[in-house]
Amino acid sequence: DTQSSTSQTFADVTGMSVSITPSSTSSKILAFGYCSIAYDNGLAKAAINLVRDTTNILIGDAAGSRQRLTGFVYVQENNYAPVPLQFNFLDSPSTTSATTYKIQGTKNNASGTFYVNRKGADTTVGGASSITVMEVAG
């Protein structure tokens, strides 16, 4: 499915959510996949975060004033092609309750639109994204 947003706030990406119920509190969960994102405004950044329930779990260092992200694409002028941002993370949720892993996305500029599974400024080019989780015995 495709999605677009003009918000500068992280929001759930449609179809990029999966739940798993670990069999033991010592189990680890391997979350992996990719999210195909684009932006329709040159010299802008679009970003994703991998989230467990409501917690960002795969984010960059907070040194200085850096925004903590799972991944981002910096769009050069006149280059609106979708970019598959990959993620791969071995999580330790320490629970036997149902746990949801999801991707959230946003844009980082006041103007323009953030897209998932399509080219920025062009509705004729589609794409696909995927998220998979599996339990690893602890």
| Biggest sheet overview | 5 strands, antiparallel
N/C terminus separation: 35 Å
User: Can you count the beta strands?
Assistant: 12
Low-confidence stretches: none
How many helices? The count is 0
Work out the strand percent: over 45%
Essential attributes:
5-stranded antiparallel β-sheet, 138 residues, mainly beta
Explain what the structure shows.
This protein is mainly beta and 138 residues long. It has strands at residues 3-5, 11-20, 28-39, 44-52, 55-58, 71-75, 83-91, 99-107, 114-116, 118-119, 122-126, 130-136. The strands form three sheets. Strands 1, 3, 7, 9 and 12 form a five-stranded antiparallel sheet that branches. The model has no long low-confidence stretch (mean pLDDT 88).
Topology:
Blueprint (H helix, E strand, L loop, with lengths): L2 E3 L5 E10 L7 E12 L4 E9 L2 E4 L12 E5 L7 E9 L7 E9 L6 E3 L1 E2 L2 E5 L3 E7 L2
